[in-house]
Queue: 4 jobs
Job 1
Amino acid sequence: MMFQSCVAYQSASVSLEQAVSEQKRTRINTISRKKYHYEKIVFEEGQFYGLKKLNKNMVKIPLDTNVINDVFIQSKSKSTWVTVAIIAIPLIAFTILALDDLNNSFYIEQAAIFGR
């Protein structure tokens, strides 16, 4: 079984320069309300690029700063908690349901034995 972690982003927007220095996964929202996700943002030869994995290769995509509305960087702590919650909540729910079913089976058995 393969688990993928979820990516949660900080709630406050940052500058492209800060996204470059943080070297974290980044989500960019455009003025037309489109969302783009990148592994990280780099600045080379006067141009910002978003790095994206494509067929196991990193591809540099030039960013048009005129259409960027917000830049959000990954929050490691939020991402960790979201991943844990996605795994833990269904596991806890399954355990509760299984124990409840087991408990109900026990009472049904007892009722049958003692004629209740």
Note: The beta strands are 26-30, 35-38, 40-44, 47-54, 57-62, 68-73.
Job 2
Amino acid sequence: MTILTAASALLVGCGSVQTTSVQSYDMAYRLGQSNSAASSLPDAPTPDLEPTIRQAAADAEANYKYGDAAAHYAALLQKHPEEQDLILGLARNLRFSGAPQQAAQMLNVHLAKSGLQPKLLIELGKDYIAADQTNLAVTALGQAQSLAPDAWDVYSALGVALDYQSNYQQAQDAYRSGLKLAPNNIDLLNNYALSLAQSGKLDAAIAILQSAVNQPSVSAQPRQNLALLLALKGDHDGAARLIRTDLPDDMATNNIRYYQGLTVQ
């Protein structure tokens, strides 16, 4: 089993995720968690309801109700079809809800109208990664990089795409470029560490993830990725401590049992 297979069986970040079982970790953290399909689109909101719908969209996304969030963003876009934050919100939540190809199609329509926009291209790259179209992702993210070379999230998403192509050295170059712009960024540190682990540099990967986990703002996911790497190293006690930090007892027990078979010889 490769590190990427294990981590995928366990995904930024590229987005907010819900901590679930070992089978959903890596893609959920690095690109986004699939939870529910986008529902049918409501009518455009009347002016007096618009603030309520905007808040409902944000609340639904925060509570992992991605299909509901996508429906709210779609309704708002009917009234404000060129508002970039709404376009990004709809695309992101379509991706999170398991419809990345639909998100990519929608973004391509907007890009054809508006011209190349870095934020839209970054999201398009993430959608292509989630749709397992990494060649298209690398192209979109390369365009974004040329337009916004100081945007750290370009390099994070590009690194993920390259990792999924097994181009680990290029991926790590991308993460290092991002870390020059955002030295303590947890998403970059997490993704860089997983890339190093995939390329056989497990000790370096653990050291980098430990530096991410020691930051006050760290979420559960980097801790659980560190637990995975410690288990691969053979430190099952250390892995178990981290697993039990975030997961309920029954899920923690299942994950600990799974990790016990992951030691790299």
Note: The domain at 3-34+120-259 is CATH 1.25.40.10 (Serine Threonine Protein Phosphatase 5, Tetratricopeptide repeat).
Job 3
Amino acid sequence: MFHQLKKFAGGGLAGTICHYLILWGMVGRHVDPVIASGCGVVAGAAVVYLTNYYVTFSSARPHVDALKRFLPMAVAGFFLNGWILSGAMSHLSFPLVPAQLCATAGQFLFGFFISRLWVY
């Protein structure tokens, strides 16, 4: 499991970089941070899916079947990200960066266990 966790972290890092580039680019254009982060999540999810399918879990499951499981997990991760980000910023008064780091950590843990146990 630790070996998979390291690979998952690498795929997650690639997805997170994609996510954050989109987030910062959109925030720089005065888009609401929660909306910008949501757009980043969608792009990052595509990177994460492909990395985990081929590298982390070396899935033999057909893409159609894996996507039927990945998409609900990704949607749940999308809402989890927004919920944590929004709550950290509005209720805990966190600045954007620490709030997004908390949201990313929550998504990482959620995503690994759901992916390992159900998606791939």
Note: The CA atoms of residues 85 and 100 lie 6 Å apart.
Job 4
Amino acid sequence: MAMLTFDAYSASSPGFRKPPAERGGLHRLFAAAIVNDQFRKTLLREPERALANGYLGQPFTLSDQEKAIIKTIRAENLTDLAQKVNQALKSI
């Protein structure tokens, strides 16, 4: 299984970027997708529904930009989704 990380903070870039510690909602989202096959399938096929339902009754604390990124990206698998989300986060 691949290890997923979000290196969305770069000290050499003075633009607005949340440090990884502030991306807890995304970390929770991907952790849920890693451990739960049904949630992963929903996230990949129906991201709006996955975000609306949360996981184990708990919503994901995501910024509006993070939600928009998750909702618009289409990916074949979780690794592909993580890579595309990471790339999109680097551009904001």
Note: Residues 20-90 form one domain.
